Amino acid sequence: MEQQKQKGTEGKEECHLCRITYSIFSTFPSMPSAMALNVETGDFFPMDTLHSYSTGYEMAEALGYAWACNCRERSRQRFDEQFVLRDGAGRPFTNAHYRVRVGPNVIASGVTDEEGRTQRITTKDARGLSLEIGRGT
Ligand SMILES: [Zn+2]
Question: 82 and 63 share a domain?
Fold first, then answer.
């Protein structure tokens, strides 16, 4: 599928999230007493701060949902992690079978190495990620 060039973005393709965020907050009236919420950290900040940003992405970052952005530095936005499995005494679970799920979907599975590490897990959204461990077969 070919992507259509968007109008008025100077060749840059912004995702819906960035465009919509920008279109909402760039035209918001100034409200000196209004507070906005960063949904990721739970911190409030002055709503007018959003006017100081020139892109929807920066606004989305301030609001705490930039992880959902689809158009910027994808690699940085992606969750890319390796788990190390240890037991209560800090000993690694070696050769443990594991499965990593996002909701009902298994996105990775394998056996941990001699240090209890899984393979690197790359996913767009780490929320809802769960790890299942089975010992031996
Ligand atoms: Zn974006």
Answer: no
If you ran DSSP here, which 8-state letter would residue 57 be given?
Answer: H
| Phi, psi of 100, rounded to the nearest 5 degrees | -110, 125
Q: For residue 38, what pLDDT is reported?
A: 93
Q: Establish if 106 belongs to a structural domain.
A: yes
Q: In whole angstroms, how far apart are CA 82 and each of 42, 67, 78, 98, 121?
A: 27, 19, 13, 12, 6
Structural domain that includes position 54: 16-75
38 and 55 share one domain: yes
Distance from residue 131's CA to the centre of ligand 1 (Å)? 29
**C-alpha of residue 59 to centroid of ligand 1, in Å:** 10
Q: How far apart are the CA of 66 and the centre of ligand 1, in A?
A: 7
Listed range (8-17, 46-55, 109-118) with the worst mean pLDDT: 8-17
Task: For residue 36, tell me if it sits in a domain.
Answer: yes
44 alpha carbon to ligand 1 midpoint, in Å?
22
Of all residues in the chain, what percent carry a pLDDT higher than 90?
Answer: 36
Q: How confident is the model over 47-103, as pLDDT tens digits?
A: 999 999 999 999 999 999 988 888 876 545 566 778 888 888 889 989 999 998 888
